Amino acid sequence: MMENIHLAAEDEDDLYTGYNDFNPTFDSEDLDNDVGFQQAVRTSHGRRPPMTAKFPGTAIGGRPIGTSFGSRMPMGSSMGRPATGAVQDAGAARPMTAVRAAGYSSSLARGSTFDPLGQSKGPAPPLEAKNEDTPEEKIKILEKKVNDLIEESCMAQANGDLQLALEKAKEAGRKERALVRQREQTGTADHITLDLTYSVLFNLANQYANNDMNTEALNTYQVIVKNKMFNNAGRLKVNMANIYFKQKNYPKAIKFYRMALDQISNAHTEMRIKIMQNIGVAFIRMGQYSDAITSLEHIMSESPNIKTGFNLILCYYAIGDREKMKKSFQKLICVPLGIDEEDKYIPANDDPHTNLVIEAIKNDQLHQMERERKALAEKYIMTSAKLIAPAIETSFAAGFDWCVDMVKSSQYVELANDLEINKAITYLRQKDFNQAVETLKMFEKKDSRVKSAAATNLSFLYFLEKDFDQADRYADLAMNADRYNPAALINKGNTVFVKQDYEKAAEFYKEALRNDSSCTEALYNLGLTHKRLGRLEEALDSFIKLHAILRNSAQVMYQLASLYEMLEDPHQAIEWLMQLISVTPTDPWVLAKLGELYDSEGDKSQAFQYYYESFRYFPSNISVIEWLGAYYIDTQFCEKAIQYFERATLIQPNQVVWQLMVASCYRRSGNYQKALETYKDIHRKFPDNAECLRFLVRLCTDMGLKEVQEYATKLKKVEKMKEIREQRVKSGRENSARGRREGSASSDSGQSSHGASAKGERLSVTLRSLPGSNEPYEASSQGEIDASYVDPLGPQIERPKTAAKKRTDEDEFEDEELGDDLLPE
């Protein structure tokens, strides 16, 4: 590196010699003392030709030249160029900037410092402010405002505020029109930005369409399309066609789709395919399946996709072409999805770096999109198979078998087992339980996932048939195949529940919840189990959690109301029932329950309102009819009570109590003749009824009729027979009591006798409201009439979540619903 450096010898001159020498002609410092210059100023001496023969110097040639080195004379260049870098004497100023080096000199100027950048002069003066009053500046500001408004409109639309987006779009349109007028006034109309105008109109039309202002959107699109200055504006006819499609104006939508198709070159294949797909869907909506098939077949030959293949199958199904359905199904399962195999996300080795990468991409957005696309394809294939299976062969079983064979030879091999399970479910819908069971039993030797799903279905079927042993067996089989299957655990819990082992059932429901915290069936059944165990607070907690998941579930709301009633909090119970009737306003049992709660609270008017609404929706509820009849008697409107008791007579014609109540109402209202006819009619139907004969005797006596003796004789015979029966019943009870003491009676007979006595007690309480034989007609207190009749079909027992059947004592727990948890998740 040192070999490239040249060192100056000691006897050589200074390397910078000559830089301080300059032509004295450029020296202006001593012009006042220059005699030649002064003489030239005063006379014409300065107009003489220059002396070129002399060595450069002053005009008279005799003045010495001073340099920074003292008396050394300057040296001229070989080309006659004056020497640079020299000054008159030490510290003298340089004469010319053009010939001075860039701030480097052998001596500084007088009174100055080294400042090549001129920083000593202070900061630069401020920039001159723009004059915004000029027309050009106003136009630029207005253009910026328009662009900002368009951007704000688009952002508002992205945030879901469609109304604000439309307002911003309209304001941008007003500003853009003002901009055009301003350019025309300033004479710069040639500089109008067409792109800005296009953006404003397009955004405005889009916002109109988003706000369902279809007419305004079409008008705005029409303005753009008709303007020949806009390039590629014809593509917007697709948007216009979409609006017509939304308005169900399918012929016009097809017309505009085709116009847009004509204006799009063949280079834009994807856009043309999408427009043709829209044309096919419009034809399907119009019922023109042949025209739709033409478009869809072209798409499947050029660029096949899942949706188009599914629509093509629907068209062939609509026209009943079996062979075409088969071919279209084969095309559908051959459509490439364009996604990676799942093996890519399985670590192939123990390389930590590779494993980290796989873990990172396992759940990224691309993989999620792939899963969604695959799930959509499987959904369309399954739906297509279920649709065409009964149509392509003589029986749906043969059709399913053909679909299964086709799927097994495609990329969707795993769907074959699901199709088999759907075949079994189809058998269930056709009420062919034996075939369904046979189909599901074929999966007992398959892999664990399919085996668990089939066993779950079998357990469900046997449970519905009340074959609890088989249901328990297959529930165990499903659990052994897949312990993490919540449906299998729920079915196992249900089989334990019916055996009244509630503690064990609760454990299975809790395990199902640990495996799937969103399993609503397990949470519902767990709440019912806690309710059976008397753990009302825990049951309440379960149903409140379930209500947070199923906000509009009528069953959950009813259970909450029932629990609050059991906790003796009628106000909360009423609150939940009010929420329940907002979901199911026509449920007569809920309305009746509300009436019962208000009645227990002493609010008769509200109770009457809900009981009456319940009667309107279900006029055959005996408890509601009885309460309404008693209410009208209590309020001295016996005539209105008659219609309710007559309806009760129609519902229970063998119950004499309702006919006696009708006669009693006639008697209370003063219509004795009608009451007498009613009692006679009751006596013909029930000749052994002592109450009826007693009233007949009294009425005939008061009315002076001859039949009084006849009815009195009959009454004595009936009372005598009644005494004999009572003695027999008394002796029978004594014998049964003696037998119980001896251990000869069974518990079942005791329970039945208890039920019979309870029923007799309820009826006797109702009959006590009638006056006795020696009482006046109005002596019986109306307040004694029984208004708390307990209907065995009422809403006192829990409702199952299945809405298709009424409540029964056996349905207090939640079964696995067909079609929800039967299939593997």
Number of helices: 33
- Globally, the shape reads elongated
Intertermini distance: 78 Å
* Residue windows where pLDDT falls under 50 for at least 5 positions: 1-12, 52-92, 744-825
The radius of gyration is: 52 Å
Give the beta-strand count: 0
Strand content: under 5%
The major β-sheet equals: none
The portion of residues assigned to helices is 55-70%
Mean pLDDT: 76
Derived structural class: mainly alpha
Subcellular location: Cell projection, Cilium, Flagellum; Cytoplasm, Cytoskeleton, Cilium basal body; Cytoplasm, Cytoskeleton, Microtubule organizing center, Centrosome, Centriole
TPR repeats: 234-267, 273-306, 486-519, 520-553, 554-587, 588-621, 622-655
Keywords: Cell projection, Cilium, Cilium biogenesis/degradation, Cytoplasm, Cytoskeleton, Flagellum, Repeat, TPR repeat
Organism: Astyanax mexicanus
Q: What does this molecule look like?
A:
The chain has 825 residues and is mainly alpha-helical. It has 33 helices and no strands. The chain has helices at 35-42, 135-158, 162-186, 194-210, 214-226, 237-246, 250-262, 269-286, 289-302, 306-319, 322-333, 352-361, 365-392, 396-408, 415-429, 433-441, 448-464, 468-481, 486-498, 502-515, 520-532, 536-549, 554-566, 570-583, 588-600, 604-617, 622-634, 638-651, 656-668, 672-685, 690-703, 708-742, 747-767. The radius of gyration is 52 Å and the shape is elongated. 32% of the residues are buried. The model is unreliable at 1-12, 52-92 and 744-825 (pLDDT under 50). TPR repeats lie at residues 234-267, 273-306, 486-519, 520-553, 554-587, 588-621, 622-655. InterPro entries: TPR-like_helical_dom_sf, TPR_rpt.
